[in-house]
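Give me the 3D structure for HDOD domain-containing protein.
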Amino acid sequence: MFIVIVGEKGARAAEFEQALADFGLDWDVLWVADAGAVMALPGDRAPDAVVAERELADESGPQLLAQVRARYPEAVRILLLDEGDGAGVEQVLESAHRLLRKPMDAGELIEAVESVIELRELLDNESLKEAIGKIGSLPPPPQLYIELTQLLRDADTTTADVAEVLSQDPAIAAKVLRLCNSAYFSAGRVVTDMRTAVTRLGLTTIQRLVLAAEAYNGTGPANGIDRDAMQDRALRTSRLAARLLGGPSAELAATAGLLAEVGMLLPDVRIPGREAEEAAAGDGQGPHYAEAGAYLLGLWGLPMPIVEAVASHHQPGRMRMSGFWVAGAVHVASALVGGTEVDEAYLRSVGMLDKLPQWRALAEEQLAEAA
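Predicted structure for HDOD domain-containing protein (371 residues):
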């Protein structure tokens, strides 16, 4: 693993090297002062990751990472930001996979790089890595969802605190209220303010609605897809997956179900059922939307069980884990909601085929409730 760190003070090298030793990692780390040194690397020294400060001596960090994206599309691109340096951050998300805080924390950097390594082991497809790496404008990470998640880690957080954070983004707040008043959540009573929505629905459901609002908010190409219909399927799949799995992993299944189809919004992906029109347009050679979506979520830093479930929800037999867990629940839920075939051979192999009639009835009941 060859890591290039640009602009961050080389005096931290000893601390970082010690952290690598503590984790048992044999990484080759090069500390350089400016962007020019990165682009001057010899051809046989392609970096696996490039970490840059926002402001460098010769150009900006985002400009450097944009060049890295073009020259080394498979490299992990990480931007370091000072505390409170959030102004204009949406502009830098096109060039960076991850945003980390300054001063650089060795543990956070190692975790960020290793999570992408794990992602690439899961999706070991060179054409996929290259295709995703070259996309000029990936949908940005769900910043409000991430901020909300961090807020909820504080045991002292109140519903008023959450409502205040959500209200800072009027567009997201409006969409959350619209979703809150949909047939799935309204219980027949109209919700008109964010604090009431948070109180009535609960923090977990609000988190999920924010994630849906951000993931399907119109970024990226439409690919001829009805976004509202996609979001509707996502919410139904999310609720059903959580009910199928139950227990402490239900929330993982709910989030994975919510994001199962997000890859359809990426450019140049294959979408089953649309082969004829893709062929007519000269497309259809790109990665499958499920793998592309999973790769995007991995770059966003979502937990690996969610990434793996999204990657394999259409082919659960490919999972590395045995048994029926998050990916299995998402497969069944997305198939039942989307009207596609459930992989009965997979369910038989994990000893869950006898539950399929019960699950079908549950899906029909959920659809009736939303009607």
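DSSP finds 19 helices and five strands in the chain. Let me know if you want a second pass.
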